[in-house]
């Protein structure tokens, strides 16, 4: 047997699986625990599950219906006359959820959670302090109300899991199940509920018992407090959850559109200070400068039948395949732009067009359209400039 090389041990090394996330203390940002009592948990799972790293449903086995039973993230329990907090906290411990997340949200399924405001809140605060964030009870006891949702930091959850046995006296008491859970959170963590943390407020919108959410949204949508709320309680049906989710999606889309418009305006102002001046479209690089006169890019001329390429042997080819699909899509967008600006014009034909590929910008087009004026019956042309920007690049080896 040959001797091993210098500085190398002859004995085989043990390959150990490395759990980098655990060893380095890397955790996911948020887990949502849903205390399910009806099929509303299915609606919450659908609306919230796409926006948070983890959502898990805890439900009394006797209340699990057909829809709820189909959830793969469901943990049933049998209360046997005891309160639910005993089993929910035990399941969190057994599934090691308390070790894997920075923040936890415990909420009943009869509450709608706005995923956009929740993410905005969680991403704006630090988890390193033990806190219970939610809406305080009206009796001044300092406990958080579960129906409004309770956000728990990781240090507070560690306390809650370690001291959960202190809640055993509440398990068989005369308090209602929800009240016992709220008291357990306060007793085990020795923390009072706060509504504001590090400059961020936990906004809750309460539904009046005389009305339903899906009927009152049109009246509420004018209130900034409603549009910026994290939790809306109390829901009565799946229709409430669906209507609220549709509304908050539209609110978030409006916020994104406003942010994009503000960013475009800022880019235009910043580009005024550059040597090249503002580019079009906003934030898209200007045309690349050729290194010499022999490498000047050429525009391809096309009609709706042919395309003229810069080729040595044949420069006219039929407009077909992907080239035709590209031209048809661009012409449709050009027509839409013109007819939106001048609705009185009647489209006649596409005279011709040009296109140019630039690796920094994408594909640029100039489309010449022929229209007839509805009032004077005169024909007129409109030239539309369009740009198909490069959305993503990939380095390829031949």
UniProtKB/TrEMBL annotation:
<keyword id="KW-0808">Transferase</keyword>
<keyword id="KW-0812">Transmembrane</keyword>
<protein>
    <recommendedName>
        <fullName>Hexosyltransferase</fullName>
        <ecNumber>2.4.1.-</ecNumber>
    </recommendedName>
</protein>
<keyword id="KW-1133">Transmembrane helix</keyword>
<dbReference type="InterPro" id="IPR051227">
    <property type="entry name" value="CS_glycosyltransferase"/>
</dbReference>
<dbReference type="GO" id="GO:0047238">
    <property type="term" value="F:glucuronosyl-N-acetylgalactosaminyl-proteoglycan 4-beta-N-acetylgalactosaminyltransferase activity"/>
</dbReference>
<dbReference type="InterPro" id="IPR008428">
    <property type="entry name" value="Chond_GalNAc"/>
</dbReference>
<comment type="similarity">
    <text>Belongs to the chondroitin N-acetylgalactosaminyltransferase family.</text>
</comment>
<dbReference type="GO" id="GO:0032580">
    <property type="term" value="C:Golgi cisterna membrane"/>
</dbReference>
<keyword id="KW-0735">Signal-anchor</keyword>
<keyword id="KW-0472">Membrane</keyword>
<dbReference type="Pfam" id="PF05679">
    <property type="entry name" value="CHGN"/>
</dbReference>
<keyword id="KW-0333">Golgi apparatus</keyword>
């Amino acid at each position: 047997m040959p001797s091993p090389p210098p500085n190398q041990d002859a004995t085989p090394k043990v390959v150990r699986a490395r759990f980098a996330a655990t060893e380095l203390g890397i955790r996911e940002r948020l887990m949502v625990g849903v205390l399910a009592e009806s099929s509303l948990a299915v609606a919450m799972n659908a609306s919230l599950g796409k926006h948070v790293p983890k959502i898990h449903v805890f439900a009394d086995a006797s209340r699990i219906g057909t829809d709820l039973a189909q959830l793969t993230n469901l943990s049933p329990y049998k209360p046997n006359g005891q309160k639910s907090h005993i089993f929910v906290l035990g399941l969190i411990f057994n599934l090691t959820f308390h070790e894997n997340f920075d923040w936890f949200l415990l909420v009943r399924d009869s509450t709608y959670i706005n995923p956009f405001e929740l993410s905005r809140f969680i991403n704006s605060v630090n988890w390193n302090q033990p806190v219970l964030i939610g809406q305080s009870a009206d009796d001044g006891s300092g406990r958080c109300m579960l129906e409004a949702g309770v956000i728990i930091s990781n240090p507070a959850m560690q306390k809650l899991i370690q001291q959960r046995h202190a809640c055993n006296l509440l398990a068989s008491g005369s308090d209602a199940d929800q009240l016992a859970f709220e008291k357990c959170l306060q007793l085990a963590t020795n923390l009072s509920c706060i509504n504001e943390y590090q400059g961020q407020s936990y906004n809750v919108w309460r539904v009046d018992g005389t009305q339903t959410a899906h009927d009152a949204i049109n009246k509420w949508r004018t209130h900034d407090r409603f549009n910026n709320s994290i939790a809306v309680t109390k829901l009565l049906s799946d229709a409430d959850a669906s209507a609220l989710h549709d509304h908050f999606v539209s609110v978030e889309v409006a916020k994104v559109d406003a942010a994009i418009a503000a960013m475009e305006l800022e880019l235009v102002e910043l580009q005024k200070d550059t040597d090249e001046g503002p580019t079009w479209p906003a934030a898209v690089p200007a045309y690349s400068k050729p290194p010499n006169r022999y490498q000047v890019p050429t525009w391809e001329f096309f009609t709706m039948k042919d395309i003229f390429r810069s080729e040595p042997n044949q420069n006219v080819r039929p407009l077909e395949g992907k080239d035709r699909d590209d031209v048809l899509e661009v012409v449709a967008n050009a027509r839409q732009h013109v007819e939106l600006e001048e609705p009185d014009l009647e489209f006649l034909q596409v005279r011709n067009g040009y296109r140019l590929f630039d690796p920094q910008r994408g594909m640029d087009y100039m489309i010449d359209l022929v229209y007839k004026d509805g009032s004077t019956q005169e024909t007129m042309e409109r030239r539309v400039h369009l740009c198909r920007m490069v959305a993503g690049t990939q380095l390829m080896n031949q």
